Hints:
Number of domains: 1
Oligomer: single chain
Structural class: mainly alpha
Order of helices and strands: HHHHHHHHHHHHHHHHH
Amino acid sequence: MQEIRMQGTKEKTFYQRIFKLVLPIVIQNLLSAAVGSADVVMLNYVGQSSISAVSLASQYTNLLFMIFYGIGTGAGMLCAQYYGKGDLRAIQAVEGISLRFSVGSSLVFSGMTLLIPEWMMRIFTNDGELIAIGASYLRFLSVCYLCWGISEVYLSVLRSMGRVVISTTLNVLAFSLNIFLNAVCIFGLFGAPRLEAAGVAIATSASRMVQLLGCFAVSFFSKDVKLDLRYMFVRSKALFSDFVRLSLPALGNDLSWALAFSMYSVILGHLGSDAVAANSFVTVVRNFGTVLCFGMANAGSILLGNIIGENKMGEAKGGAKKVMKLTVIAGAIGGGLILVSMPFVLKHAALSRQAMHYLKYMMLINVYYVMGVAVNTTLIAGIFRAGGDSRFGFICDVIDMWCYAVPLGLLAAFVLKLPVMWVYFLLCTDEFVKWPWVLGHYKSGKWLHNITRENLFSE
């Protein structure tokens, strides 16, 4: 009887810990989705061309986000386990390694968007109007990338240590400011010039700069891990080797996934502006539908990583099962939210008749697509990475996206010349094709590893 009570107490404690992490992450993800929604809603009053151009240009921001996410994942995998172990010096060294990669990536993207934005837009579309609008958007956006790269690493480290409230507060500040400045810059409120699509980029840049200042303010009062650029010069061959071994597959995984989704946009972009505009709206709705799923994946990764760092492998396996149960519930809720939102979205979207037709059926497809996203994201980006396994997800997603989904989409669109909705439906089978392999790897338990080391700085 006493053993049953102890087990019940452990389960209750686990659920309390995970919900304590999930709630701030969900709030942060909701606000992130709200920014994207605000962009689309406000540009809806400017014109369909602005919506389509910003949607296509934003693929580069999404790609850079995936780079930062991959770098942050590598940092989070190591920092979560070293935090469970109580090794703060290792966490500082990992932060420095991550900053080297993120700052370098930021500089590359900033240079490209400042110097060759028209060329970057031509990859997605041959429409002259969309290229002009998108190039202006990218050029103004270039100034925010460096700020974003630095702050994203620091916030990833804080999250891995369970300090999600601080991370969420800074993101709330940035996202709220972004929405307000969107309105000011797009419509020219309070005497500001009316900048339309370019105003979205200016608002984003300003909010990211404020977020970085907030990170430095938090760091000033932090007693352990600070946002200190001098960490970039801390040397540890073992940690650098571990970071590269764990982060590169995670980065490759996220990049291949992001590039594949960009290819989806390329395919739809060449099927007409109606398809692009409808996909812009449905992406916003799907982002709201998946916030709980992604929150569960992030929270599960943090909590399981801390537990594994304490070398409690049995408890980690049990925790993974609980996370999976919660994920299925989150996926069902996300699909329900998309279904319930359909009447409102279809009523207020100012799109052409053909685009509205596409939007209706794209949303119906996403009602069930969210479940595929929920399960795969939680396993690949959450549970597996918590156990130090980023390689499986990389191999799985490269094969699924680049050997199946993208070739299938290209074949359907440009060889078979199927209708737009058939192309979209086929693209949205990608998540379910990999279920047998992903679930099989989860059940095998091969993802569970303690990746911490002893005597890291003895040299």
